[in-house]
Amino acid sequence: MYSRAYKSAVTIPPLLWVAFFLLVPYAILFCYSFWSVSSLQTVVHNWNLQNYAQLFRNPLYLTVLLRSIRIAGAVTLLALLLGYPLAYYLSFHAAKRKDLLYQLVIIPLWASYLVRGYAWKTILGSDGVLNGFLQYLHITHRPVEFFLYSPFAVILTLTHIYTPFTFLPIYASLEHVPGNLVEASQDLGASPFSTFLHVILPLSLPGILAGATFAFVLTLGDFLAPLLVGGPSGIMISNIVVSLFGAAYNWPLGAAISFCMLLFVVTLLLATERLEKRFTIS
Amino acid sequence: MSSALTSARVKSAASEALLSIRKVEKQFAKRAVLRGISLEVASGEFLTILGESGSGKTTLLRLIAGFEQLDGGEIWMDGERLDEIPAYRRQVNTVFQSYAIFPHLSVFENVAYGLRAKAVPRNEIPSRVTQALAMVKMREFERSAPSRLSGGQQQRVALARALVNRPRVLLLDEPLSALDANLRRQMQIELKSLQREVGITFIFVTHDQEEAMALSDRIALLRAGRLEQVDQPREIYGCPKTAYAAQFIGQTNLLRAEVQEGIASAGPITWPTAGPSGPAIFSLRPESIRLAANSQPAAARGSSTRFQGQIKNQTFGGAMDLLEIDCGNSYVIRGRVPSPGSLSGQQQFEFDAADAVRVVESSDT
């Protein structure tokens, strides 16, 4: 057993850190969401629910929020479709190349987010690599504009950025599927596909849930990708928050949106955590 | 010791072999694990593959199950090549050492797994599962989650899950090794009676020679990837062919003797033997050694051989005591005799010359 002094020494600093730099700012933000901005562009401390009412009255916010959820859903789905087969291959079939392939998946995480964002800009732009290639092959005759500055570009970029985050928990859960269960399934007459469906997939469900949560939550809160490659039609909810705290100078409304998102994300995390627990077998 | 009847039974069993393992070879990373294993297993037989860890016994089992591929040789079942069929199409089921119960399925669904995989008609499944669980006395646990079961109970579920498929051959990979001693003995008895009941061929892997002797119709003794001896338990115990077999199955005294004109002599002990002259190794079981009655006249001894020795150590063992007897010049022999009370000093011992079995030195790996 550890002594009380040791336990306090280890736990108190991070707790203080979280309290001062997370909980206190959240509390201040929470207060802001009930205040308003006067015509003189100053924040007035008159407590009301105007900001929250505006969220539901102004269709712009709801539209962008729904679009953000759609984009996050699409990215999650694509990241799962890419990440799961990759993790499955690495875990069951890669044999000697396992470590190398694993590194190849992880290395992009070390490159700066901005670098990867700009890379896609270079690829998708009207003078970009993709358009150049298509014109070289005479598939198109002038640059295709909608590659860049569209929800499509946002989804593509974010899928690229967040697939490793989805891959990692899935890979970890597949690595923990006991080999003798796979053999037992074969032994009992199940074909490889049936074994996958009835043993491997159910046992990797916690990993799928964790990976999907990563992709969804990270995408939902993302504002850089829409900024770099999204254009007006690819704007997401976080971009609105950024502009409300910046140029628009409406901190109260920005705070209200932030809180709604926070509530949504926390609810989602709690739900998936409960689901994960249900599917995790000791 | 071998009667004509039993050897005839073995012979006829071999001719109607269900499973035929022919010159099987297996390497892992260029290291030979199995070298030219040939073995016939009869229908309804309880065969034990016995060996130390690393002898290749589990590998042999996994080859039959289809989890490993042969590097040489063939495996046949019922007149068909078995080794060319994928594991999931073999009419063979395995009880795994660590049970391998599906943790996400109930006991019922675990047992039903094989039936569903083979598309057994839906309405047949519940009755077959219930029957299989009843066979291993686990009916009341049908709805339980595996995590709530003890090791022994999981073991029973694993048995039911395999047997419900009515396999031609049931493979058991050290299934009792994780159980405590009492439960283990109880499961041995149940396993044996279960096998008689269902009449399925059991191939049982273990490193425990007592377990092997208690359960098996025949024992295949494996050593460093080769078969040392394949025989019935009584045969392999009574007439071990090699020094290794004699030592591994039961306790024994290995006497390195010199044979000259029908007389073997090892240290201070001599006895008559029929074999050829020259150096030889004999196996003499401790229980073949008796305390000799001192007054008995030499003429009444018959074929028994006497020797004298100093009691070096006496270990009380209930009905039988284990004696370490120093016959002079530090030539120590172990004897197991009905508990005689405390012994000390010089004593006379005797054994029947026929009980000293001539064995060959096993070639080293």
Question: What does the model show?
Answer:
The complex is a heterodimer of chains A (282) and B (365). With 282 residues, chain A is an all-alpha fold. Helix content of chain A is 73%, strand content 1%. Chain A has a single domain (56-279), classed as Orthogonal Bundle (MetI-like fold), CATH 1.10.3720. In chain A, helix 3 (59-92) runs parallel beside helix 7, helix 5 (113-124) crosses helix 7 (151-175) and helix 7 (151-175) packs antiparallel against helix 10 (205-220). Chain B is of the alpha+beta class and 365 residues long. Chain B has 9 helices and 20 strands. Chain B has helices at residues 4-15, 57-65, 107-117, 125-135, 151-163, 181-198, 209-215, 233-238, 243-248; strands at residues 17-28, 31-42, 46-51, 72-77, 80-81, 92-95, 169-173, 201-206, 218-223, 226-231, 253-260, 263-266, 269-272, 278-284, 290-291, 304-315, 320-326, 332-338, 346-352, 357-359. In chain B, strands 6-7-8-3-9-10 form a 6-stranded mixed β-sheet, sandwiched between helices. In chain B, strands 13-12-11-14-20 form a 5-stranded antiparallel β-sheet. In chain B, strand 11 (253-260) and strand 12 (263-266) form a beta hairpin. Chain B is elongated. The interface between A and B is medium-sized, with 22 and 24 residues.
Strand content of chain B: 25-35%
By CATH, the topology of chain A is MetI-like fold
Distance between the termini of chain B: 30 Å
CATH architecture of the largest domain in chain B: 3-Layer(aba) Sandwich
Helix content percent band of chain A: over 70%
CATH superfamily of the largest domain in chain B: P-loop containing nucleotide triphosphate hydrolases
* CATH homology-level superfamily of chain A: MetI-like
How many β-strand runs of chain A?
2
Q: How far is the first residue's CA from the last residue's CA of chain A?
A: 25 Å
What do we call the CATH topology of the largest domain in chain B? Rossmann fold
Helix content of chain B: 25-40%
Overall structural class of chain A, as computed from helix and strand content, comes to mainly alpha
